[in-house]
Design brief:
InterPro entries: CorA_MIT, CorA_TM1_TM2, MgTranspt_CorA/ZnTranspt_ZntB. By secondary structure, this protein is mainly alpha-helical. The protein has one domain. The protein has 4 helices and no strands.
């Protein structure tokens, strides 16, 4: 299952789905919780085995039980190493998913930044010419309104050209 989730995150098409990434995070989080429970179980088994081996030294069958204890401890250590490996893979999948979510957020913020950059200059011009001052030279001109509109449109065009030149589209 972890392989499927990791592949889904790493092979997402250009339009990544936020809902899909959220589902992957939930699934991987559940797998991490399961892995933590397995590791706790292995740790408990290891402690029980050490305790039992220490007390079996006194018993009559201690010589017969030593090889079985050693084999069980090796098996538990092997399982603990495999659990550590899987925990690392889970961590990598979570990191990759969070990275994809970060890329999606960067795309959205970039789009909002472009929109803000387009509307900032015309808003500034409109706010200056919208001030209620008695003596503003251009307000008395017959073509002052058209000049202000032209400046607003020109600022948008200039902003679009600059953004295209910077390859922000």
């Amino acid at each position: 299952m972890l392989d499927t989730e990791a592949a889904q995150v790493l092979r997402m098409p250009g339009q990544r789905g936020g809902d899909t990434l959220q589902e992957v995070l939930v699934t991987v989080g559940q797998q991490a919780e399961l892995m933590n429970r397995i590791r706790m179980g292995l740790l408990s088994l290891d402690r029980i085995l050490v305790y039992q081996a220490a007390n079996a030294v006194r018993g009559p069958d201690s010589a017969k039980l030593r090889p079985a204890h050693a084999a069980l401890q090796r098996d538990i250590q092997a399982l603990e190493e495999h659990a550590s490996f899987l925990s690392g893979r889970i961590g990598m999948t979570v990191d990759a998913t969070m990275g994809m979510i970060g890329l999606m957020q960067n795309d959205r913020v970039r789009s909002l930044s472009v929109v803000a950059a387009l509307f900032l200059p015309p808003t500034l011009i409109a706010s200056i010419y919208g001030m209620n001052f008695e003596h503003m030279p251009i307000l008395e001109l017959e073509w002052g309104f058209h000049l202000a509109l032209g400046m607003m449109v020109g600022s948008v065009v200039l902003t679009v050209l600059v953004l295209k030149w910077m390859k922000w589209d």
